[in-house]
## 1
Amino acid sequence: MSQPGFRSRIGKQALLYGLGVIAARALSFVSLPIMTRLLTPADYGVIQLIEMTFDMLTILAGSRIGAGIYRFYHKAEDQEEKNGVLSTALLFLLTSFSLIGVAAWFSAEWMSQLIFETDRYATAIRVASLSFPWMGTMGVTLGYLRMLDRALSWVLVGLVKSVIQLIMVVILLGFVGMDLTGVFVATLIANTLTGGWLVLTMLRETGVSFVPSAARDLLRFGMPLVVTQVATFFTTFADRYFLQKSFGESEVGLYALGYTFGFLLMQVGYTPFSHVWGPIRFEVAKKDNPSPAIARTFVLINCFFLTVGVGLGLFTYDLLRIMSPATFWRAADFVPIVLLAYVFHAWSGFLNLGIMIREQTKFITLADWLSAAVALAGYLYLIPIYGSWAAAWSTAAAFGVRVVVIHWAAQKLWYVEYDWPPVIRLSALAVTTVGVGLLLPEMPLVPSILARMGIMLVYLVILWNARIIPEDEQDRLRDWIRDPKSAIRAYQNR
């Protein structure tokens, strides 16, 4: 695979994923003023805690068993064997998630008492349990679309699901008058329609089969990741439980809303690339001297990823002022720290290549449990005193430890010569820019937006001139600006 062709393949697919994610995020921004007027911060907190509980149950159901589909799909020698890997993973996860969903249905009152010290939310938990089987299938079916480079189908499924969910939320909460349980009913309807279609589509193409050898491979590869997912879940979500005990559901709701912008950074800034990079990086690793292509990809992904982070760090507060009642604005306070945490998180996902190539996922387990220990210390001793600030900083510290350990282990197992100097310069520039934005005094909305736009423009000028973006990539961007039609034709012919 030539390097230009390799970059072109990533670029073409990532462009589709990126447009899809941007469209989905635009829909989320449209829904934000609707949701914040239909729900209170306390409602947000309750929804977050129920969703977190079911995220934890995905661990028991073995969600990470499906993580090996990319590795073993590309490792398979013929299409029949590839189809067997996918079908086996789907059947295994559909069965395990259905069993856990049934258990959650019958345990709803107990779960509500455990989380909220009341059985008031048992109905919401039961409705959420009905969506649970689809959570097990999504990873495999959407992964199938990614491996076949069906980016457009992947994007359309996500958009259709989001549109259905938003429409149902408006109907059920705004017109029917349901309480927060309506959010879970809307999710159930959207998941059933899109998840059912995905399962039928994939099995129609792969056939229905359960291959014991494929199941053993997936279990061997995925079980260490199941263990590590406990630690990842704890680092990412357990702070909400500690916040609830010390400060109540409203504080959880505000923190969760601020945390959403960390997820947004991943979804807009990193996920479009990772959806392409994740399946093909094993293919790239087979080539002679893959380090230059891998290192160049890391630099370019960071150029876009960190630029999105700078934009979120500068404009989140003004976005909340536009799109939500004043009771939600304080959520912006924690966003810059959460963004830092998710920069570390994204780096871990890219830099773990050596671990995945050598199939030594035990090192990811080690990294995640070390990070969980760091997070636990912060959650136990700092959250009762400093609240959401402590939660955010503890998460950032934990993810920082994680990326250091993962990078060290991956390099020991399968060395890649990364080009760190431009990434370090870019990171310093991003942190400085967001810091300048934080120093701005309180001002009316329009002057605030204009001031932040000026800061963003200075950032972009420095980024262009700081020898961070490789010269040949700058030349390609100039071609796009000067003659977009010719540049697109040349790009498509690569």
Note: Residues 224-494 form one domain.
## 2
Amino acid sequence: MPAKSKKKKFRLFSSDLDGTVAGDPVATRRFREAWDALPKAGRPVLCFNTGRPVNDARDFIQEIGLPVPDYVIGGVGTEIFETAMDCLLPEYHDSFGGHWDLGKIESIIGAFPGIEQQPPRYLHPYKSSWYLYDGSKDQIAGLEEQLADAGLGAIIVYSSDRDLDVLPTDANKGNALRWLAARLSINTNEIVVAGDSGNDTSMFFVPDARGIIVGNGRAELLEAVAGQKVYHAQGHTADGVIEGLQHFGLGI
């Protein structure tokens, strides 16, 4: 854990949901109360950045009593919802590159032994999600090779030894966050991110962003972000988020 931190002001906070600000109801309540107590004038933009599709994420945020965010990045970086406008930002999809063909992707991935498609509420046209328990690096690499051989513009994000998401080449949590920051005229060195698992990795590689890994963070994330500007919190879930935000100078 770093001994000191330069308390440079940040303007945008992007946090994963499950296992980060969610997972312990009491800690989640502490986070909500602390965030809501911040003066609105100086409060950073709040963005929840999750693997859940936006509609599911918004229901979940309300259900567990998190603060109302300014933005929700959903579907592992494939959707962006703006609360003030009460709508998705369709122009974000225009930033995706490569050849995306959901039907072909599902045909290839679905034929893989031991894989199971996730329920419909976790799917949308730019996110193909599956369960693959204890998948190996060789298995994931083999699937990626099949997609590439088929000429498909797709990447695989595998996390928690279970969740396999196939996304457009340019879509991930980090790229979505960079796109949003540019839209808001926020520099990337004014961003703090928080996460706990492998599908959060790309957030920590946003140039000059500072990161919080909660105390329950998985080894897959810790290994992936070695060398980045990361604070390793002692507290778990939302308590670790609060600890990290205090470390980076937010009076929460």
Note: The longest strand covers residues 154-159.
## 3
Amino acid sequence: MLVALGAFACLMGAVPLSAQDGCEFGDEGNDVLRQVTLTGGDAVFYVTRPHLVCEGGIQIWADSAVAYTSSNMAHLIGAVRYEDPMRSLRADEARYFSQVGRLQAEGSLVVEDLDEGSVVENGALVYLRETSFRSEESMTVTTGADRVRPRARLTAGSAVPDSAGQPPEPPRVYVVEGDEILSRGGAYMRSVGSVELAFDSVMAFADTLEYREVEDHLVLRGRASVDAPEYDLAGQQIELLRADPDLREIRAVREAVLTGEDLVLTAERIFLFARDEKLQRLVALPQEADSTLTATATARPHAVADDFEVTADSLEVLAPGDHIERLFAGGRARSVSHARDSLNVEALPEVARSDWLEGDTIIVTFAPTIAEGRAETPDAAAAPGDTTAAVPMDTTAVAPADTVRTPAATPTNAGATVERIVAVVGARSLYRMTPSDQSARAGEDPPAVHYVVGNRITIMMLDGEVSHMEVEGGTTGLHLEPLRPGPGR
């Protein structure tokens, strides 16, 4: 009987190969043992309520077990439990191959990392232990026979105070679900097959996900998307990085699209910076010049908000405190407004079918909205200077306030209104207005067209309307009024 017990314990192989004979039956269980000797000398052992205690603090329980000496395999059936100092496992059924350090388990599967608190549940598991011939452990969990996909709950963040004695940061929790989940060495995880990721109030989706615990770095590949309360982001690849406990950087590359409540931004590369899950800064860029990705490598960043759009070599939005403060459009910047397209007529040339502003750089400054809904705006008087031409807007020649929009004007964002729009270096602007002829009818008679060129064009806004325009350096321009119609119109 002692020989049989030792052989069964050896088959469990829950310790390094050099010390496999260190497994013993524990004090509980092990009620029945039966041995069947097969032709050729191999044996099969049957045990009810097995409980094994092995070197390294490993323990294994089950309702029953069958061990085969021919394959060095133990089949554990019913309420399987595996525990060591680092992890625990629960399953309905498991098979352990002692000679190769391989554990297979399925049915109500739950694997917990006792140190980090991460948990994997559901599916069918293959666990390869670290051994003398395997330098790193690995675990693969696939969709089980019940068609329930595996789900991992990953916990990131320190659980102990830092060197200064400060309390640990709250743990960050990621929930990942996919057709397959692979982990290696406890610090790397990959999930494939219609992957879903949830953290905080964010959901993300991709064909493949990779996670590196040390850097708290997530990479989504293939039809990747991030759905957040303030925006949706999509691209062929999305990376989520964390520079510090509060600041997260999100990078979308290849066919990237950001959709907000009032904004749609497309670019080859979009970078978001969020603090405490609130958007702080946004950068949109074309593809890198040395990139091997050529699908849409020539596309420039393009933003659309209601009737307003802007295109440039790069776009940057500053939004500290979750409110837009400034937008920078750099490199062949062009903004277009279609808000007054109702003024267009068939005879109007293409160049005058929208209001637009161009320059090497366009800067839009926003002001916070006060309680009455008006933007706090500085004195709009023109700054003194020999090179500045101040062009006040004649309210008798401008459309009603609810339809006025400058070429660079954007819709008000939450809690902010446009205060100033500046175009610099090779700046020029064209906008349409109702003609001075009071009998003219919008959409039937041509609008008046105002065109100006300068080194710098500044448009000041007040209460959502144009206050005045300043043009500096090399100023030229013209104002065109349509011909008065003849007697027969």
Note: The first helix runs from residue 2 to 12.
## 4
Amino acid sequence: MEQLYHSVTLDVKKCKGCTNCIKGCPTEAIRVRNGRAYILENKCIDCGECIRVCPNNAKYASTDSISRLKDFKFTVALPAPSLFGQFKEGTTIKNIVSALNKLGFDEVYQVPLAAEEVSVAIREYINRNGEIRPLISSSCPAVVRLIQVRFPELIRNIIPIKAPMEIAAKRAKEILSKKLGYSLEEIGVFFISPCPAKATSVKRPIGAKRSYVDGVFSISGIFSEIVKNLDGEAFQSIFEDASGLGIGWGRSGGENIAIGGDNYLAVDGIQNCIEVLEEVEMNKLSDVDYIECQACIGGCIGGALTVENQYIARVKLRRLSEKIGFQSNLNTDSIIKQFNEGYYHLEEKILPKSAFKLDDDLVEAIRKMDLLEKTVKDLPGLDCGSCGSPNCRALAEDIVKGQANETDCIFKLRDKVKQLAAEMFDLAKKMPPTMESKG
């Protein structure tokens, strides 16, 4: 049985059972029972939507502590492209890289640099593989998990190319091992993430047995410490600087710009992604070559673990990209050679998740499905969420699975109370035969 891990975590003590979280969850992975929320682990995709909407801060992302740097002889920070859009105007990449060095990292490998490599690899794959359309980006782990759970027939559309985070970690370890003589195990590589889905993909990678990344820090978790150390540019990394193409990956549409195609689609926001994936499922977008899907509004700059307003961050990232320029210094021929050798490809097939399976036994599953449909018809269909399930169909599913009762629905409970009251009233008018008056 697959071991489940989720970065998105519930603090039960803070939860008030308000039901805000259950309505926005794209995979219906949250229920409220006995006045407290709980997460269905087999449905959660770690998109972080519940973190955004919880008024009591009861949902949070579990990431690593900076003390983990002590576990390795040599440490590397992997700043996500979105990190560079979080700071005040005028902050340079060198300012940020030097600040990370002051925090305790021995080196800094810019993930935007790996994003430029991956852009070339994606372009090559699209050009060479025309039988499946549209191809779907694999860079957002929340979207990939969404497809596994809700759109398993679209797994074949996911482009089998590793995300920039993984390529950055792999490159950093290979280069440092060769130049400085450290073993791969002695080098600790830490991603600075805008979202909980990336933290989950490190502990439970998609398309690989293990991740090259050793840990994840949230942008919000170390942002204040970076700001305190933004006053210098003294540190000189042995790695190259990224161009504006890689930096642009931090916002919606940036991936497509870096790839350089003209028949691509960019979609951001988990609900918008669901709508587009439904269109793909119905074969309505077969004339589109590639879809860049990102679970957060605005792209990674809108991640649940960022600190800057997404619209402001988008402008900052665009201006920074333009200032740096869009001329990549990478050797395209070398990247294509490694692409041919499989360097950028996922190592394993992406498999569907049976999150909505009613029973392991097929006959019993069919019986439960029939019961579910009947139960749905008996419910009011208002999808109010007062029952602790996100909608009436989800409640029906919970009832069939034995995880809820029909009277959890306040409307069914009201009808039951009315019926009971009427019965009690009728009963109150009745007298035992021995007490009846003689007329």
Note: The chain has three domains: 8-61, 66-340, 362-428.
